[in-house]
Amino acid sequence: MTTFRTRDGREFLPLGLQTHNSSTGVPEMLDREIAAVKHYGGNLLEAPIYWYRIEAEQGVFNFDDLDDLIRRCRENGLHLIPLWFGINKNGHPNYAPEWMKLHPETYAIAQGRDGGRVASMSPLCQATLDADRRAFTTLMEHLRQVDGEIGTVIAVQIENEIGLANTDMDYRPEAQAIYHQGVPTVLDGVTLEDSGVTPAGNTWRSRFGRHAHEAFMAWAHADFIEQMAVAGKQVYDLPMMINVMLGEQGYEEAGLCYNSGAAVGRVLDIYKAVAPHVDLICPDMYVPDRERYRRVCGRYARGDNPLFIPESPITGVANAMNMMEAFADYGCIGMACFGAGHVMDMQGNPLPESMDMALSMRTVANVAPLLLKYRGTGRVHALVQQEFMDKQYLRLEGWHVEAKFISAAPSRWGMGSFLNTAAPENADIFTARGRGLLIQTGENEFYLAGCGVKVDFRRRPDPLEEDNYPLLASRQCGTLNFLSVEEGHFEGDSWVCDRVRNGDESNFELFSHRGQVVRIRLNPN
Ligand code: DGJ
Questions:
Q1: Per-residue DSSP letters for 402-437?
Q2: Are 360 and 451 contacting, i.e. CB atoms less than 8 angstroms apart?
Q3: With 0-12 CB in 10 A as exposed, 13-18 as middle and 19+ as buried, what is 91?
Q4: Contact between 213 and 204 (Cβ < 8 Å)
Q5: pLDDT (tens digit per residue) in 80-109
Q6: Mean pLDDT, to the nearest integer, of 287-292?
Q7: What gap in Å lies between CA 351 and CA 345, rounded to an integer?
Q8: More confident residue, 77 or 471
Q9: What are phi and psi of 88, to 5 degrees?
Q10: Would you say the CB of residue 46 lies under 6 angstroms from ligand 1?
Q11: CB within 8 Å of 137: residues ≥ 6 apart
Q12: Which residue segments constitute the domains of the chain, with CATH numbers given?
């Protein structure tokens, strides 16, 4: 898959929130969390379903929680991604049924270097795979029956932030025997960066050097997930995804900085080789600093893995800013923030700390059809007010674009628009960090959506024109020379103009301060 599609084949951009871990089956929590999705302008709910509740007694299944989630999403016009909390939730088996947890002699717990059990179940245990896979395929069969025609559920996440906690590999004798069999042929040609060896031979050490143990556990987890995905798709062919506890943390050593065997950036090629039925390998983006955020996006946004962000902070300015670059520069195909209940008070009203992210998500939602259409073309530009910035310059083929940020360059005129606002009530839009998206849809046509930004265009000299300077210097060359400036919204893929801006609302700068979408047609003459 490249992008998400509805049952009738229309592309759409899933945006929304993930519930807290323990909300499923609790109506009071879910009501608040769905209200939060709406406050964020979202169309997506992600929610866990718990294996221990689905199969409390071995072989007896109960899908009430899932049915309830589907019904709630339908009633509220939302899509749903159920998260299969099976044997591994952040490296822990806490969502596995008791009949499994009580029998580690059958369902193996991984061992650490010292021979003691670690927190995680081993993916190298056939009985565990058989049980998890049986439950998962029963779930997929149920989904096919209850949702096959309508398609409220758009994808399923298998497990949650998998990997082994507290060890770099499973040191059980059974696992070690597999390790000593050498590297399976499915990994022929796969190498890892910074392994310290020139790959040769067939042992994990000779092929992957200092990352040998991590590579082995990545292969083991990827193989486990692949077998789950294959079996699940056989009964109901839905997109399958996994989410990842990032490896781009600290000194980046598996089992210490993150769960070993997780699909971290370093071992993505292993996962892609071993688990082709997993459509999306998704980074959980709890990354405030821009440089690391971009590094992670750059690793996961690949031709064989469109970037989908299933978890990210639900509050704070950092995510509200960085996400613009995920959509503009990395073709992000959807995004959710974690902890929906967290941003609503006990009466179900949004808390002030939700405003930054809610406004950014609504802004993105407002231009979703354009983001899908121009994804990967280089025509989607992020405007982001990094620290100390008052302006941002974009050099485009035919135009110089200067974006100014309203918090650093307040406008006295031209801000008179409260139509089409995406700003949640009380959002402090005049002091907020400016951010937005500028999308070039024609040689001289742009759409702007943002918060606290204004743009000014100046035609760039034509390389073949003898005397560019008079035109470049003339007022005629700048923003004032537009054909039309419209404020509006999209209905499906069609633009609907709600108001034409002119005079004070367009002559000084072309602004979007509350998430509005503005269509700008410039006059190149
Ligand atoms: C990442 C996990 O995937 C989520 O389930 C949740 O535990 C968050 N962390 C919040 O801590």
A1: EEEETTTS--SSS----TT--SPTT--TTTSPPEEE
A2: yes
A3: buried
A4: yes
A5: 999 999 999 999 999 999 999 999 999 999
A6: 97
A7: 6
A8: 77
A9: -140, 110
A10: no
A11: 231, 232, 234, 235
A12: 4-366 (3.20.20.80), 383-522 (2.60.220.20)
Is 311:356 a contact under the CB 8 Å cutoff?
no
Question: Which range among 122-136, 184-198, 303-317, 459-473 shows the weakest confidence by mean pLDDT?
Answer: 459-473
Question: How far does residue 313's CA lie from ligand 1's centre (Å)?
Answer: 10
- Ligand 1 pocket check for 85: Cβ under 6 Å: no
Taking the C-alpha atoms of residue 453 and residue 3, their distance in angstroms, rounded to an integer, is: 29
Q: Could you read off the pLDDT of 219-275 as tens digits, one per residue? A: 999 999 999 999 999 999 999 999 999 999 999 999 999 999 999 999 999 999 999
Phi, psi of 482 (to 5 degrees): -105, 165
Q: Partners of 60 in the beta sheet?
A: 57
Six-digit token string for 261: 């065997």
From the CA of 160, how far away is ligand 1's center (Å)? Answer: 8
Give the Å distance between the CA of 81 and the centre of ligand 1.
15
Q: How far apart are CA 305 and CA 298, in angstroms?
A: 11
User: What pLDDT is attached to residue 463?
Assistant: 87
Q: Give me the pLDDT at residue 348, please.
A: 87
CA angle, 268 then 168 then 103, to 5°: 105
Probe residue for ligand 1, chosen from 19, 21, 81 as the CB with the greatest number of ligand atoms within 8 Å: 21
For residue 523, report the distance from its CA to the centre of ligand 1, in Å. Answer: 50
Return the number of other C-beta atoms located less than 10 Å from residue 31's C-beta.
Answer: 16
The H-or-E segment that residue 32 falls in is: helix 27-39
* 500: helix, strand or coil: strand
pLDDT at 413 over 60: no
| Confidence at residue 363, expressed as pLDDT on a 0 to 100 scale | 96
The answer, yes or no, to whether residue 431 has pLDDT greater than 60, is yes
Residue to probe by mutation, ligand 1, list 258, 338, 342, most atoms within 8 Å of CB: 338
- Kindly report the average pLDDT of the chain as a whole number: 94
Element (H, E) at 282: strand 280-283
pLDDT at 72 over 70: yes
Give mean pLDDT, residues 455-475. 84
CB of 385 within 6 A of ligand 1: the answer is no
From CA 67, how far away is CA 71, in angstroms rounded? 6
Q: What is the DSSP letter of 265?
A: G
pLDDT of residue 409: 80
Give the alpha-carbon dihedral of 299, 293, 519, 517, to 10 degrees.
Answer: 130
Q: Is 66 exposed, middle or buried (0-12, 13-18, 19+ CB in 10 A)?
A: buried
Q: Which of 17, 23, 50, 90 to mutate to test the pocket of ligand 1 (most atoms within 8 A of CB)?
A: 90
pLDDT, position 476 = 67
Give the whole-angstrom CA distance, residue 192 versus residue 208: 6
